[in-house]
Please model this.
Amino acid sequence: MKKIDEPRLRDIVGERNIKTDPSDLYIYGSDSSVHHAMPWAVVKPETILQVQRIMKYANEELIPVIARGGGSGMCGQTVPVQGGIILDMKGMNKILEINLEDVYCRVEPGVIDDDLNLALKQYGVFYPPTPASSRIATIGGEIANNASGVRSVKYGATRDAVLGMKVVLPDGELVSLGAHTRVEASGYQLHKLMVGSEGTLGVVVEAILSFVPIPEFRCMGVANFDSLNDAGHAIGSIMASGAIPSMLELVDSVAIKAVNKTMDLGLKEVAAALIFEADGMVKEAVDYEINKMKKICEKHNGQDIHASYDPKEREKIFMGRKKLFPALSKYDDNLASTALADDMAVPYSKMAEMAGKIHEIARENNIVMTAYGHCGSGCMHTKILMDTKRKDQWDSAKKAITQVYEYVRSVNGTTSAEHGIGLSKAESFKIEKADSLGLLTSIKKALDPNNILNPGKLMQAPENWITATNLRYSVNS
Amino acid sequence: MKKIDEPRLRDIVGERNIKTDPSDLYIYGSDSSVHHAMPWAVVKPETILQVQRIMKYANEELIPVIARGGGSGMCGQTVPVQGGIILDMKGMNKILEINLEDVYCRVEPGVIDDDLNLALKQYGVFYPPTPASSRIATIGGEIANNASGVRSVKYGATRDAVLGMKVVLPDGELVSLGAHTRVEASGYQLHKLMVGSEGTLGVVVEAILSFVPIPEFRCMGVANFDSLNDAGHAIGSIMASGAIPSMLELVDSVAIKAVNKTMDLGLKEVAAALIFEADGMVKEAVDYEINKMKKICEKHNGQDIHASYDPKEREKIFMGRKKLFPALSKYDDNLASTALADDMAVPYSKMAEMAGKIHEIARENNIVMTAYGHCGSGCMHTKILMDTKRKDQWDSAKKAITQVYEYVRSVNGTTSAEHGIGLSKAESFKIEKADSLGLLTSIKKALDPNNILNPGKLMQAPENWITATNLRYSVNS
Model:
């Protein structure tokens, strides 16, 4: 571990914005993944200039720098596996401009997604990429991982909403990328490259984002299925039909059980349920989409199909999905919900097979896995529920996710749809992108020659993370 | 000029697919821009392997390679300013797959845009980025320039439709980028970087594209304005209102005169006209958008406002815009229509000012300029009509476009919205992107260390192209 020049950092960000106490460092050593590693210091810049000065220092001294937002990353993106400085970007949380005439806003990276949408709401517009973690996720973190959520099926992911940005490069230089306009064809679109680069190419210090009108009408529907396979085929048919859902979510039996167990929702314990939504400015158009989706669900043996425009009814329908994530942690007191192979994407026609595959692999490996997610955008989530104290459960989990990813790649799917690669998914990522890893590495070298920005992630991450990195659980051997 | 190893190239692509006759080379020395330069050879590969072998040879011998599609580039993107081999990609023109279940198609780069849309039409879907040159523009060329057109305001530009691609790198290596799925967060999204890189980073040999359903209903409207300023403000208000036009086009008095002169359309010779369109699966939703736009046009003193769902009526309304490009060449027998500062983008609120600025600058410099374009997506086109034989007209043109770009940059606009940078726009591009030119150069070096892919373009292009490159016009001194 390198010696950090605390006085120099204090001089840059001030006494109150630097943490070196081990108890603080411990907290910043993990995110929402299974990984943990101790940083050397946590520094909280409040201005672009401070970020530039920190980077200049780190680059001179070859100290790793890991920009961190809300810490909601699921695969270890902000875990400092090689130590270094955690840049706590939450200190830069100003909404700089909401430009209604030109239809964009400018924000600092530490702005919380929900706070941005609260500010936009008063003007009748919203920022659509919003992931499920929007209560804590920052815009900067969402950009770093190309985050998306329930509405990306209609409105796109973070990359689609980013028009431009200001980025501090490893050497402290500040560059402006992209534009303030809707279309741009002026040279390399590096702002799109920065989206999803997981803090390995530059530190985003400002973003120009587009927004869209809040629709006048929203209608949400639900359909139950006795077969996970039928539900999966319904998803494929809906998307192939040209329907435009503003949401199309799958929840399987495990997920439904988990929710019933923790909340008194009395969800019918079927094999799977589809939650679908359409929105728009004209009711007839929303009806059109909803009816189209209802019919397709019927055709695939959906039951108890109903839909509603009523906010209370919609809230009730969605509640199960909304509470799924916390509920999974309570599925079994002895089992923790871990995000491992948790957000793969497959072509629509493989949704049914993918969901079945997850349950089959869970059975084979004696662990509990659930299939759910934003299937309308091709994303299938899983969580692995396991006893994290038991070494053998980790081995089973490792075996299971290897099988999941083998299947995903075999059907032209991709390792991560929304959560990024970080550490947990590096093994599959490297196999999937084998032919372009050299290219990725040359890009990384070109932008970060000293490899100080979030080193040891993506193509640099170790194949076998269970043995190569620390887990934030104590495992009995 | 380097000696080309003709036997080796013949061995790769066969006798009939290589051209070295000066008369042939001359034709391939220009595109739709004002520039001209002689290539050393024109080679027409028909397979990925042939492209790989050509690149390997060129990289060993340090011979420039310029991939070329339909030659509809407006700013010299495919003009071989440093000589070398023109890769005529039209030899790779197969539609490889139309996958309706997974909602994507796979195509070779030489496929003509109109041919792809003709093939998609039978399935009730279309590929939306389509530029005005779709009759000759290839998918590969559209990708190289992030092309877009009249419908990009609703459906996005090429970058938005590209899910993945296969690319041959300068050393002949083949890499797959992107995915077959709708969302992806797996590492650097290099396929998005390739879009708009104007053939300087790699040769696209296959593309995975998304498509969308052909709407059941289309309604097109038109509004005349006595003041260009009013028309410009109408555009800004429409886009700020959250309306979703599928087309929003401006044509000014010069454009209208040009069309009336060449065709018997009897368009009313007003200061400006707006053509607007909405589309969708539900008539009520289309009505909603059209009425919204009509009202805004009225509010801004629009006249003769009418709209129609009837294909014949729509054809009549759009004919003027459609024939504008050829018509401008016939505006005055002594004046040629040149694409110089021809596709800048400005924020919506500056549309009116931008249009006025163009006319003001034209007057100042004694040349004829027209303001038109896909203003709904922020793009404002101009053409400069001038006597290309007269040196002084070129000087005036140069002065005019310098003033245009100064204005564009002063209002947070960007140099190119859809046509790319090539040679003609390098001067403004370099000023606009001054702070990131180093970054662009390092990316170029990382991917093309020997600088053989379309050298001398973008950040490498000369500031003063009039003197630094050959014009395809003979200018009297």
